[in-house]
Design a protein that fits this description.
The protein is an alpha+beta fold and 154 residues long. It has one domain: RutC-like (60s Ribosomal Protein L30, Chain: A), CATH 3.30.1330. It contains three helices and seven strands, in the order αββββαβαββ. Strands 1-2-7-5-6 form a five-stranded mixed sheet. A hairpin with a 2-residue loop joins β1 and β2. α2 packs parallel to α3. The longest helix has 22 residues.
Length: 154
């Protein structure tokens, strides 16, 4: 079944990765009170984890792409949890964006735009969300970006 999200992804020249399995003692998605709480997702490109520290060995463009790749993984988790029925997404409520950053790197919001802009492109006004964009000194496995989400479903 091809969904509206699948068509939009195709128009953007993007494809969803396989939803990643947990790497520790947690589940990828918890549903509570009509909200999906999606665990932090890491950025993968061509099957490889996008690693590095923004402002040190990675630039803003790399970070924004990594954030977009995290957003693709979030959508993959949503689609898997909803058995492919992405039409049940009522609203992307909030994204929490963690950027592996050098101490003097202050463009975390611009990095986070890589994810935010994709959510808006895929879900329209329902993709507009609240957001945190936080610099951290390290992330699991050396990832450049990690993003979690809260999503309202019908």
């Amino acid at each position: 079944m091809t969904t509206a999200i699948d068509r939009k992804l195709e128009e953007l020249g993007l494809t969803l990765p396989e939803a990643a399995a947990p790497v520790a003692a947690y589940v990828p998605v918890v549903e509570a009170g009509g909200l999906l709480h999606i665990s932090g997702q890491l950025p993968f490109k061509d099957g490889a984890l996008m690693t590095g520290r923004l402002g040190e060995d990675r630039d803003l463009e790399f970070g924004a792409e990594a954030a977009q790749r995290c957003a693709l993984m979030l959508v993959a988790q949503i689609k898997k949890y909803l058995n492919g029925d992405t039409a049940r997404v009522a609203r992307i409520v909030k994204l929490g964006v963690f950027v592996n950053s050098a101490a003097d790197f202050t463009d975390q919001p611009k990095v986070a735009n890589g994810a935010s802009e994709l959510m808006q492109a895929l879900f329209g006004d329902d993709g507009k969300h609240a957001r945190s964009a936080v610099g951290v000194p390290t992330l699991p496995l050396g990832a450049a970006v990690e993003i979690d989400a809260i999503v309202q479903i019908r």
